[in-house]
Task: structure prediction
Amino acid sequence: MMRPLVALLALCAAPALADPGTVVAVGGALEDDNAAVFRALVDAMPADAPGIVVIPAASGSAGGSASRFADALARHGVARDRVDLAQVAMVDDPETPDADESLWRDGGSNPAEIARIERAGLIWFAGGDQARIMATLVRPDGSDTPMLAVIRQRLAAGAVIGGTSAGAAVLGEHMIGCGSPDVALVAPVSRNLADCATTEEGATGAPLVLAQGLGFLPGIVFDQHFSQRGRLTRLVRAVACIDAEAVTGIGVDEDTGFVFGLGRETGHAVGKGTITLVDPSDGRKTCDGAVMDNVRLARIPARTGN
Result:
């Protein structure tokens, strides 16, 4: 089991290594000039797997996801031809009239798309709606699609798994599907991800919805756009309500990444903002009213250097 994140605070000064692999959660709004985040992604890739694959499942503009990510990486010395697109999506991209990306919803079981993942050293989840990622990579019975199984194999072999915004939300064992901070502490909590389908992004009064994530980091729940959207109350309630022996909440600011090396179980922040840790491992918590005591809260500034 992953050690509590409070223990990791002492290790946050140590860089993460890609052995067996590295998970990078970006809080959204990643700027192309953020060298610290892009270098963290690229430098942790295994030397024998230079390929980069974008999974655009969450996005409403899936067709252009790889091109946009390639443009950003090119600013940091990565050749554009190293970046490929996995055809996994649920929504048609209006900017690509020659393709209907809504037909890609079964890409998680398509051998040709899975083959792209098998060669990748960096697998990147684009932002958008985390429920779309879950719908395309997890079967209705909760089991992995063949593509998700291969993604897990690549992480175990040393690859980097990263994502931004919704793409970061899915990386932990637990996941916040949606919910507005203004009522997060008092409104009923849903465990049904389908309840997010009627919630507009940024809407007020929307109850918190919790679900399972993809589980690349056991015991973790992420919240993104953290400081910019005032989501501390949402993360605190999520941590209080997740029914698990050990759970730690990590809030990641925009244009900021949390980098975790699985081999050394060490994490650190990179980019331009902070990460916020909510660790109840030495205290008590109850879901009703998010009542917790002896809970540790930490805010860690990101490294901005290359």
